[in-house]
Amino acid sequence: MKKNTTAETPLEFEPEFVAGLAKIFEEMIAFNQVLGLKIDSIRPGGVAGRIAMRRELVGSPNRLHGGVISAGLDAMGGLAVMAAIGARHMDEAPAQRLHRFGKLGTIDLRIDYLRPGIGDHFELRAEVLRLGSRVATTRMEFLGADGKLLSTGAGAYIVS
């Protein structure tokens, strides 16, 4: 019987892969720059990032615009899919895995706004629920600086 090593040794990405994925996400996707999205962690099981409150992102006084919340959650869902694809192909070199994301796109997105986006910064988290050969499904969270859940999201992404 083959021994299951994944339970004993958690899968970790190489620094080169994490840095490359962060560069794609933060520097090469112009809309993410507009939002000010920054990555905190990229792991095979999920991703985390943050957005700082800026005047140009505000909807009504002192509240983050719902479109910013939606766009941030969508972007994080896509990043979680990129990480899951990278984890699926760990037999490839990091640079080779970074070229697998050209056809990734959102095909469905649902956002539930639970509380207003009030605060000086926000945390975003996303995880992949299922990574198929053509479609990935994700779950996302948007939290205030105090850790309170402000919005949730669910997305489907085309991966082929």
UniProtKB/TrEMBL annotation:
It comes from Sulfuritalea hydrogenivorans sk43H. NCBIfam families: PRK11688.1, unchar_dom_1. It catalyses: a long-chain fatty acyl-CoA + H2O = a long-chain fatty acid + CoA + H(+); a fatty acyl-CoA + H2O = a fatty acid + CoA + H(+); a medium-chain fatty acyl-CoA + H2O = a medium-chain fatty acid + CoA + H(+). Pfam families: 4HBT. This is Medium/long-chain acyl-CoA thioesterase YigI. The keyword Ribosomal protein does not apply. Residues 64-149 form the Thioesterase domain. InterPro entries: HotDog_dom_sf, PAAI_dom, Thioestr_dom. GO terms for molecular function: fatty acyl-CoA hydrolase activity. Belongs to the YigI thioesterase family. CDD domains: PaaI_thioesterase (cd03443). Keywords: Hydrolase. It comes from the Bacteria. Its EC number is 3.1.2.20.
